[in-house]
Amino acid sequence: MPLQNLTILGCTGSIGVNTLDVVRRHPDRYRVTALCAHRQADLLFAQCLEFRPRFAVLGDAEDAAALQAQLAAAGLPTEALSGVEALERMAALPEVDAVMAAIVGAAGLRPTLAAARAGKKILLANKEALVMAGPVFMRAVREHGAALLPIDSEHNAIFQSLPDGFHGDPSHALPARGVRRLLLTASGGPFRAHSPAALEKVTPEQAVAHPNWSMGRKISVDSATMMNKGLEVIEAHWLFGMDAERIDVVIHPQSVIHSLVEYVDGSVIAQLGNPDMRTPIAHALAYPERIAAGVAALDLFQVGRLDFEAPDLERFPCLALAFRALSAGGSAPATLNAANEVAVQAFLDGALGFTGIPALIAACLDALPAKPLDSLDAVLAADAEARAAARGYLARAVAA
Predict the structure, then answer these.
(1) Do residues 344 and 318 lie in contact, with contact meaning Cβ atoms separated by under 8 Å?
(2) Would you say residue 218 lies in a domain?
């Protein structure tokens, strides 16, 4: 396999760190061209010392200048840059073969879209590119010949369980190829057995303590509310071209089965493994080959049992809100995502209760009817409008 040049968007987050761990194991296959972070300058500098990229990007210009001085003092040829425009440039560098899109939230949309427009192999860990801008993003993928490989463990599991030759192209019409349903598994998070009344007392510290996965604070809260699964339903719709009626969610506390595909002949094909993000990362990096990821072998005897249950939409209304937004279409998923980002940050800051998260999102969906999305500008306008509505809701809640 020829050497692949990589840009890693979000290199200091969980996905970025795990990506570099896989890359570290295969120096003959991968070379890091650009490392992009938001604030963690010290970790980014350490990564530059090891991987010696051509470029390093931070969000703030002053931070980038300080990093440049460190790089120069260490004798590294790496050039430090800053800002969204630099991220877009890194995603579209001519010498880059693959882009790991792992910036959390709406901030990852523009550079991920830039990678699509440059026809790159995109390892997609940024849900928001599809949740916010599904029609715009998928049109760019098709028109510019980009390759799209999912990194979320659930979507990667579905990808691995689909008919041969799917290649990430939703125009392949899965129902016509015998696929009846996609089944996304969910751990249920730390509050799977809590009553709705008990959820009102949940603290940020409790919400970020996921039982199976090591994730950032925002994604951990999304898992606790099951909004993470709702966003994944919307993402699956765009990735695989499946209607909402053909996508189901199954609570599976052990997180051993990462998702399943049901076929019309009664077969159900699942992908299993230990809950370790290096598995889907390695799969996407090397696809269609397989490479070692450093993940321990699954011991079924130790697992012992696999449990399944239906999601409780009274306990987890965020999941129902995501299905509602998907059905409404247009700007509704962008409104859902923006309102959720504002609500989660308010919860982490102590300004909103845990059960206030779905209440805020529902209020924004009620207040902002779905509009058509035909451009990036329309997506960004819908995002801004929803954030303003969410902040207004918070201000009224505080005043009350």
Answers:
(1) no
(2) no
Taking a C-beta distance cutoff of 8 angstroms, is the pair 283, 258 a contact?
no
> For the segment 238-272, what is each residue's pLDDT rounded down to a tens digit?
999 999 999 999 999 999 999 999 999 999 999 99
Residue 36 bridge partners (DSSP): 9, 57
* Residue bearing tokens 């090891």: 50
Indicate whether this model's pTM tops 0.90.
yes
Per-residue model confidence as pLDDT tens digits over 157-206: 999 999 876 655 555 568 878 999 999 999 988 898 888 889 999 999 99
Residue listed under structure tokens 């102590």? 350
User: Is 195 contained in some domain?
Assistant: no
Tell me whether strands 257-263 and 179-186 are parallel, antiparallel or unpaired: antiparallel
Tens of pLDDT, residue by residue over 229-242, are 999 999 999 999 99
Find, among 172, 218, 195, 259, the residue nearest to 347 by Cα: 218
Contacts of 341 (CB under 8 A, 6+ apart): 105, 106, 218, 387
Other residues' Cβ atoms within 10 Å of the Cβ of residue 371: 16
Output the six-digit token pair for 54: 């051509």
Q: Minimal CA–CA distance to 182: which of 96, 246, 88?
A: 246
Q: Is the dihedral of CA 311, 317, 323, 326 positive or negative?
A: negative
Which residue type, as a one-letter code, is found at position 67? L
Residue 271 phi, psi (nearest 5): -110, 125
The H helix count followed by the E strand count for the chain is 17, 11
Q: Is residue 57 part of a domain?
A: yes
Residue 94 neighbours by CB under 8 Å, 6+ apart: none
Q: Which of 20, 84, 24, 30 is nearest to 57 (CA)?
A: 84
Q: What are the backbone dihedrals phi and psi of residue 21, each rounded to the nearest 5 degrees, phi first?
A: -65, -40
Q: Tokens for 180?
A: 């009846």
- Residue 174, in any domain of the structure: no
What CATH number is associated with residue 112?
Answer: 3.40.50.720
* Structural domain of 68: 4-150
Q: Which residues pair with 185 in a beta bridge?
A: 250
Q: Which residues contact 273 (CB under 8 A, 6 or more apart)?
A: 256, 258, 279, 295, 298
Q: How many domains does the chain have?
A: 1
